[in-house]
Amino acid sequence: MLHYDAVVIGAGTAGLVAGARLAEGGARVCVVAKGVGSTHLAPGTIDVLGYAPDRVASPAAALPEFMTARADHPYALLGPDAVAESLGWLKARVEAGPLPGYRYAGELDRNLLLPSAIGALRPSALVPETMAGGDAALPGRVAVVGSRSLRDFHASLCAGNLRRAGIEARGLEIDIDVERADENALGLARRFDDAGWRAAFAARLAIKLQADERVGLPAMLGARDPHGAWSDLEQRLGRRVFEIPTLPPSVPGMRLFEILRSALRRAGGRLVIGAEVVDVERSGQAIAAVSTRAGGHDVRYAAPWFVLAAGGFASGAIELDSHWVTHERVLGLPLRGLPAPGEPRFVAEYLAEQPMARVGVAVDGELRAEGAENVMVVGAALPGAVPWSEASGEGIALASGSRAAELVLARAGGTPAGAAA
Amino acid sequence: MSSVTTPIDELLRGSLDHCVKCTICETQCPVSNVTPLFPGPKYAGPQAERYRVSDEPSVEWSVDYCSGCGICSMSCPQGVKIAEINAQARHKLKVQKGIPLRDRIITRPTWLGRAGTPVAPLANFTLGFRPLRVLGEKTLGVHRNGPAPKFAGRRFSRWARSHAAPATGRKIVYFHGCGTEYYEPWEGQKVVEILEHNGFRVEVPKQDCCGLPLQSSGLFDDARKVVLRLARALAPHVRDDPDTIIVGNATSCTLMLKREAREILDLENDPDLALVAERTYDICELLLELHDRGELKTDFKPVNERVAYHAPCQQQGHYIGKPALELLALIPELEVSEMNARCCGIAGTYGLKAEKYDIAMAVGADLFSQVRDSGADTVACDSETCRWQITHGTGRSSVHPIDFLHRAYGL
Ligand SMILES: Cc1cc2nc3c(=O)[nH]c(=O)nc-3n(C[C@H](O)[C@H](O)[C@H](O)COP(=O)(O)OP(=O)(O)OC[C@H]3O[C@@H](n4cnc5c(N)ncnc54)[C@H](O)[C@@H]3O)c2cc1C
Ligand code: SF4
Ligand code: SF4
Ligand code: SF4
Question: Which chain A positions have a beta carbon within 8 Å of B318's beta carbon?
Answer without folding.
Answer: 294-295
